[in-house]
Amino acid sequence: MSKKISYQGEAGSNSNMACTEQFPDMEAIPCASFEDAFAMVESGEADLAMIPIESSIAGRVADIHVLLPESGLQIVGEHYLRIRFDLLGLPGSSIEEATEVHSHIHALGQCRKIIRENKLIPVIAGDTAGSAREVRDWNDPTKLSLAPPLAAELYGLEVLASSVEDDETNTTRFVVLARKQELPARAKLPESVITTLVFHARNVPSALYKALGGFATNGVNLTRMESYMLDSSFAATIFMVDIEGHPEDLPVRLALEELDFFTWEIKILGTYAASEHRQKISASFV
C-alpha cells in the first residue's frame, strides 16, 4: 500500500506540486481545509501533511501560526517551492477575447502586471487550481484562470501565457508534518538543523527582550519570529520562532534555559534538517 501525504487545496495547486516535488513516490491527497489535512495525519489515513507556512511575497500564511501549535502534529521537514503561475483558458481561446481572470487572492495580487496590461477583471476564487477547474466547467472563453502549471494538464486547459508572476523570486516555504514522536537525536540529523518552537512571554516589562537575550548571548541564530495574540486577548502574546540548531546542542540548551525563565510555556514543534534551499540562501547572506 502506497504512503499518503495530505495537503490543503485542489489537485493541481501549489501545495500539490510541493508534495510531488518532495515526495514523488507518495500519493498526494487533497483536503478542503488545513484542519482536514491535519486530521488525516492524526487519524492515520495519511502518513504526512504538506502545509504552507510563509511566502516570500505575502508573508505568513493566515491561520497557520494558530492552527499548527494546536494540531498535535510535529514538524519533520521543510520544502521551498518556487511559485509559478500560468494564464489558462479553454482550448482555442485567447487573452484578447477574455474579460475576467479567476484565482486565489494571493495569486491575483502576485500577477498584477498581466492583469492590468490586458484590462482583465480579477475575480477571487477559493483556490488557484480550483479556479482552473471552474474555467473548464463554465466552458466560457471570456473567463481565464491564474493557476500553477500542473493545473493546465489536469483540467485540459490551454496555457495562454506562462510564468506570469510579477516577481520571479516568489517562493513559498512549506513544513512537513507527522504524528507526534520523539525528537530525532542530534546524531541522526545533518549538521544544519532547524528547531521550531512557540513560547508565551510573561506580561512584564522587558520580558521579550530578556527572553531573546539567551539566544544572543549563546550565539544561536533566529531565522524567523512571528507574534500573535492568545484567544483574541490583548494581554498575552505568543511567539513562534525558528532557530538554527538542535536542543541537544549546548548553545541551544543554554538559550532555552534562559527562555524558560522569562516565559510561562515553551512548546517545541519540531527539529528537522534544514532544506538545501535554505542553506544556499543563508550562505549568500553571510
TrEMBL record:
Catalytic activity: prephenate + H(+) = 3-phenylpyruvate + CO2 + H2O
Domain Prephenate dehydratase: 4-179
Any single Pfam family the record assigns to this protein: PDT
Pathway(s) this gene product operates in, as recorded in its UniProt entry: Amino-acid biosynthesis; L-phenylalanine biosynthesis; phenylpyruvate from prephenate: step 1/1
PROSITE patterns, sorted: ACT, PREPHENATE_DEHYDR_1, PREPHENATE_DEHYDR_3
This enzyme's EC code(s): 4.2.1.51
Enzyme class, spelled out: lyase
Ranges where the ACT domain occurs: 196-273
GO molecular function: prephenate dehydratase activity
Keyword annotations of the record: Amino-acid biosynthesis, Aromatic amino acid biosynthesis, Lyase, Phenylalanine biosynthesis
Alphabetized PANTHER family for the sequence: PREPHENATE DEHYDRATASE P PROTEIN, PREPHENATE DEHYDRATASE-RELATED
Name this polypeptide is given: Prephenate dehydratase
Species this protein is from: Glutamicibacter bergerei
Organism placement in taxonomy: Bacteria, Bacillati, Actinomycetota, Actinomycetes, Micrococcales
